[in-house]
Write a structure and sequence with these properties.
- The protein has twelve helices and eight strands.
- By secondary structure, the chain is of the alpha/beta class.
- Strands 3-2-1-4-7-5-8-6 form an eight-stranded mixed sheet, sandwiched between helices.
- α2 links the parallel β2 and β3.
- α1 packs parallel to α2 and α9 crosses α12.
- The chain is globular.
- 46% of the residues are buried.
- One of its GO terms (biological process) is single-species biofilm formation.
- One of its GO terms (molecular function) is transferase activity.
- Keywords: Transferase.
């Protein structure tokens, strides 16, 4: 039995997928690799069949992020599961260090972060609490590179009806069950594909992610002065880059504007529908102080 199983979700990512799978084959602890493909036509399936242990397919119209992870986890042989985006390249110790985090008592899931929810550098590892998730629902687990115990996933599978942010919603339920979610800088995996995406693609992606959280947690719309403040004053919790470089970063400005615009759209939609927060979020409603993506 392998020590870990990595689930990779993919669609039309052949060159990136090959780099991602090569990084998994170079791990100090070699995992079982399960690729879940949702309708690739660019050669991704051929790459997966050559480099992965198991290749699963779902029709594009049936794909959801949570559904693909549930399918991959159901075919995993290991007691520890990891998720890696097809866009990402993991460092050689990623699986080994993730296993070490999950070996700690009470830790049910893990992901990489350099800064804690207050903006302080994480030394060793940080254990998220339900209060952390209430204060900032956008700071948390990211399934571009995450890990979890099989027993936790069996008790709380990923929701398959969410368009995005299935990772955050799932982590709230895990925290509500009494498990800790651990974060450490040495299991961080970069997300260069976000910076390289076309502005319109990134705008829509951020919009989906923020809208999903806003609807689950009934988040208010930021005021216009708050939007201006978010643009001019970088959130210290989201990056270790110098503040001046972040102020003038077009990528950061786009992410902040997309984030706040999605909050405003969601609040308007709830006002028209008269709807409250969705059930099952685990840690209850909160308010948000602005964009908290890794910029």
């Amino acid at each position: 039995m392998p020590a870990a199983t990595v689930v990779v979700r993919c669609r039309d990512e052949a060159p990136a997928l090959e780099r991602a799978l090569a990084s998994l084959r170079a791990q100090t602890v070699r995992p079982q690799v399960v690729v879940v493909d949702s309708g690739s036509v660019d050669g991704s399936l051929e790459v997966a069949r050559r480099m992965a242990d198991t290749v699963l397919t779902v029709p594009p119209e049936a794909f959801t992020y949570g559904g693909a992870l549930n399918l991959g986890a159901a075919h995993a042989d290991a007691a520890v599961h990891l998720a890696l985006s097809a866009h990402c390249v993991a460092g050689p110790h990623w699986v080994e260090r993730s296993l070490a985090l999950l070996a700690e008592d009470g830790v049910g899931a893990a992901s990489g972060r350099r800064l804690d929810p207050t903006g302080r550098p994480i030394v060793g590892r940080y254990l998220q609490t339900p209060d952390d998730a209430r204060r900032d629902p956008f700071w948390g687990l990211s399934n571009h590179a995450s890990s979890w115990r099989r027993e936790v996933w069996e008790a709380e599978p990923f929701r398959e009806d969410l368009a995005a942010s299935e990772d955050l919603e799932w982590s709230w339920r895990v925290l509500a069950r009494g498990w800790s979610v651990a974060f450490a800088p040495d299991v961080e995996v970069p997300m260069p594909h976000r910076r390289h995406a076309r502005p319109d693609v990134l705008w829509r992606k951020i919009g989906r992610e923020v809208a999903a959280v806003a609807e689950l947690r009934d988040l208010p719309a930021p005021s216009l002065p708050a939007v201006i403040r978010h643009v001019l004053v970088p959130d210290p919790r989201t990056s270790t880059r110098p503040p001046l470089l972040r102020v003038v970063s077009p990528y950061r400005v786009l992410e902040v504007l997309a984030h706040d615009a999605a909050l405003r759209r969601s609040a308007r939609a709830r006002g028209r529908a008269g709807a409250g927060p969705a059930a099952g979020s685990g840690v209850g409603p909160t308010s948000s102080g602005g964009a908290t993506g890794a910029v």
